[in-house]
Design a protein that fits this description.
This protein is an alpha/beta fold. It is built from eleven helices and nine strands. The protein has a nine-stranded parallel β-sheet with strand order 1-3-2-4-9-8-5-6-7, sandwiched between helices. Strand 5 (161-166), helix 7 (183-193) and strand 6 (199-205) form a beta-alpha-beta unit.
Length: 324
């Protein structure tokens, strides 16, 4: 039997959850998720499955070094386990298989090395025909995800990549060292070096929490964005539809601080305003239905500050929506 050679540091462990029975009618996530092995997700002989049904592989990115560098409150390194714990008890209604490939762990200050290894894992999984799901981690997770997506055969073959960020912040900070505040500027520079343009859009920007310099950088790079105060259901649906129409494949990244603090208290920087959960969930449904979703990640959960596991449960619900 072929085993995984992905550059992960912690191999997957069994998920847990409520037990109601062994039958398909009782199945929950913890009963459905299996450890990843390449032969289990190999494409069928009659062709590649559709984006709505191809196997999904979960990878944890245990890092809060980027948050520390960005002067936020650490704790996001524990998030992958918390999200798995919240997913485990959910009823399983998916029409696809889901596998767990384990965790990449950032030790100490070795953020860049961890991002490279996570990117390598994502590229390998994408090229094997899977939908990849990274559970962060601070939003430095996004650059790890980008390295994986940009290194995939889909992007190498010329497909037009779009990056959609659900976030209160642009994360376009120009800093001496990479952090949770820099990933999208890093992406823009990497795309320019590759002779491409970064197609980047953000839903949920807080005007009060982004400096004029960040807005100027966004305008210079041609970033499309919606302010949190403008995020009605109708406006968001039109915005996302317009963005999806101009790309071939999508990388969706969800910074949980896009949600109001009452909904997502367990994040590095809780939002005073935020975008409502029904609107964020509708975006996830829209993206899943588009058939263009290549990769997704969820970032900035901080279990240390998560009241009643509220934020972890929201993250789990959004992942369930995207895969369902």
């Amino acid at each position: 039997m072929e085993t995984s050679t992905l550059p992960v540091d912690v191999r997957p462990v069994p998920w847990t959850g409520r037990f109601d029975g062994d039958g398909a009618e009782h199945r929950r996530w913890w009963q459905a998720v299996s450890p990843y092995a390449p032969h289990l997700t190999a494409p069928a002989a009659d062709g590649e499955p559709s984006s709505r049904t191809r196997p999904a592989v979960v990878v944890g990115f245990c890092s809060d070094e980027g948050v520390r560098r960005n002067k936020g409150r650490p704790g996001a390194a524990a998030a992958p386990a918390a999200i798995r714990g919240a997913l485990g008890p959910l009823a399983y209604h998916l029409d696809r298989s889901v596998f767990d490939a384990g965790d990449v762990v950032v030790e100490g200050s070795a953020l860049e090395d961890g991002q490279q290894r996570a990117g390598t894992a994502v590229s390998e999984l994408l090229d094997a025909g899977n939908l990849t799901v990274v559970l962060g981690g601070g939003h430095e997770t996004a650059f790890a995800s980008y390295l994986g997506v940009a290194g995939s055969s889909a992007v190498a073959s010329g497909k037009r990549l779009g990056v959609l960020n659900l976030d209160a912040h642009f994360d376009l900070r120009d800093a001496a060292v990479p952090s949770s505040g820099t990933p999208f500027l890093q992406m823009a520079r990497a795309e320019a070096a590759a002779g491409r343009e970064l197609h980047y859009a953000v839903v949920g920007i807080s005007e009060a929490n982004n400096t004029r310099t960040l807005f100027d950088t966004a305008h210079r790079l041609g970033v499309k964005y919606l302010l949190d105060e403008d995020c009605s259901a109708e406006a968001v649906e039109r915005f996302v539809a317009s963005f999806l129409a101009d790309i071939d494949v999508l990388y969706l990244t969800i910074d949980l601080d896009v949600l109001p603090a009452a909904t997502a208290p367990g994040v590095s920087a809780p939002a005073a305003y935020g975008v409502s959960l029904p609107v964020i969930n509708a975006i996830c449904r829209q993206v899943a239905a588009s058939g263009k979703l290549l990769h997704l990640d969820v970032a900035e959960l901080n279990p240390e500050f998560d009241v009643d596991s509220r934020t972890a449960k929201v993250a789990a619900r959004l992942v369930n929506t995207l895969l369902g």
